[in-house]
Design goal:
Radius of gyration: 26 Å
Oligomer: single chain
Strand order of the largest sheet: 3-2-1-4-5-9-8-7-6
Number of helices: 13
Strand content: 15-25%
Order of helices and strands: HHHHHHEEEEHEEEEEHHHHHH
Largest sheet: 9 strands, mixed
Number of strands: 9
Helix content: 25-40%
Structural class: alpha+beta
Length: about 400
């Protein structure tokens, strides 16, 4: 029998780790002094172990160590020369700065961003479009302040909120900030720094008229929805072209009032749109006066991309169990999940065959340490089986009972 074409000299996990730049990780570690007083468990090994946790979906420190022990003879392929102790891993999660994982994620993203971009963008898709939203991860104890009032029993679970910006072009996070769940969304707008001419789309939870004015001065265009209690005055109504979508009801310039005694003003554009499918009226507000009203509505519709990304992360990498009960350990584990999602997305972008992301995650989770060529397998998973059948047919062509060959399969 011939050699399996899907065989590889390296586990699938090692092939995923090849997307990381090990030399840069060492450099980041030196800059952050992340390996100070560390003898063996370096930052790179820490990243590898936490990725192992994310891919395998382990729920505890004990499961993690047992998983590593069960693959002890393969750890050399991962750059691990020993199995870390529970106490060492716990201490690293508590003391090593989580910024090392932040830098590894952004370095990997920037290095591979060109292959993540969709080269078949339609006119609706805009390469300078960014989408912002947040998702809350509930914690098992009150480590970070959760939202809402305290229950009658006086106990309330904590929560961490991930504020995320994705590029519509590649649907991957390029900006992530973590805060307590109780922190208001709009405070994060001040940290947004995008190139001139960018378009930022977000929901009305991020309303901050003062920041909208700053965006306008920097020529950063925003698209969001108008709050029901917004105080504004209509200044000029624009004509709606005859060929415009019938759902566009009004297109006008408005002046929003904000600040102390509502004395500060912000010039914006209000678009009223009737969604005939959902029987619902939407009011959009933007500081861009060049795009058509229909394009503004389509941009906001693209905001659903980030909701799908959150759904993908929560379905495939559910963060219900953490390996530490401190803020640093939790943030490290969340960044490890984001990095694992990025590595799989890079792999998926290099494969021509269309795969559902959840199917790829399921296969890799079960075969993470198997010596399988990920590219060959995902391009044609049935090839090895076809070749096996072909070889058996050749072996049976001189058989006295050739009709029996089907019984083997």
């Amino acid at each position: 029998m011939g050699k399996d074409k899907n065989f590889s000299g390296q586990p699938i996990f090692t092939q995923l780790l090849s997307f990381l730049d090990k030399s840069n990780i060492k450099r980041f570690s030196k800059e952050l002094k992340a390996d100070r007083y560390v003898k063996k468990f370096t930052s790179y090994k820490h990243v590898v172990v936490m990725l192992f946790v994310a891919f395998e979906g382990y729920h505890s420190m004990r499961d993690t160590i047992l998983g590593l022990l069960s693959n002890a003879h393969k750890l050399q392929h991962l750059g691990l020369d020993y199995v870390v102790k529970r106490s060492t891993l716990s201490e690293a999660n508590a003391r090593r700065p989580n910024e090392i994982f932040v830098k590894v994620y952004h370095d990997t993203y920037q290095h591979h961003a060109h292959i993540l971009a969709d080269s078949k963008l339609s006119k609706i898709d805009i390469k300078r479009l960014y989408i912002m939203d947040s998702t809350t991860i509930t914690l098992f104890k009150d480590i970070l302040k959760g939202v809402g009032r305290n229950p009658d029993n006086g106990k309330k679970k904590g929560g961490i909120k991930a504020h995320t910006i994705i590029r519509s072009e590649d649907n991957m996070p390029c900006f992530i900030r973590y805060t307590a769940a109780a922190k208001n969304d709009h405070l994060l707008l001040k940290e947004v720094d995008l190139p001139k001419g960018s378009i930022l789309c977000f929901d009305k939870g991020y309303v901050d008229y003062a920041q909208y004015e700053i965006f306008t001065s920097k020529e950063i265009w925003y698209v969001t929805r108008l709050k029901d209690n917004a105080l504004y005055v209509a200044r000029e109504e624009f004509d709606i072209p005859d060929d415009a979508n019938s759902g566009v009801l009004k297109d006008e310039e408005i002046e929003l009032s904000y600040g102390k005694n509502k004395l500060q003003k912000h010039k914006a554009r209000r678009i009223a749109y009737w969604d005939s499918v959902n029987k619902r009226l939407f009011e959009f507000v933007t500081n861009n006066f060049d795009l058509t009203a229909e394009e503004i509505t389509l941009i906001y519709k693209k905001r659903w991309q980030i909701e799908l990304l959150f759904k993908q992360l929560k379905q495939n990498f559910p963060l219900k169990y953490f390996l530490g009960d401190n803020e640093n350990a939790i943030i490290i584990q969340i960044w490890a999940v984001m990095l694992a999602n990025l590595l799989l997305t890079i792999l998926k972008s290099k494969i021509k065959k269309s795969w559902a992301f959840s199917n790829m995650v399921s296969i890799i989770r079960h075969q993470l340490m198997s010596y399988i060529n990920a590219y060959s397998f995902f391009e044609d998973p049935e090839r090895a089986w076809r070749e096996l059948i072909k070889e058996n047919k050749l072996n049976d062509q001189y058989s006295l009972f050739p009709d029996w060959e089907g019984a083997y399969f």
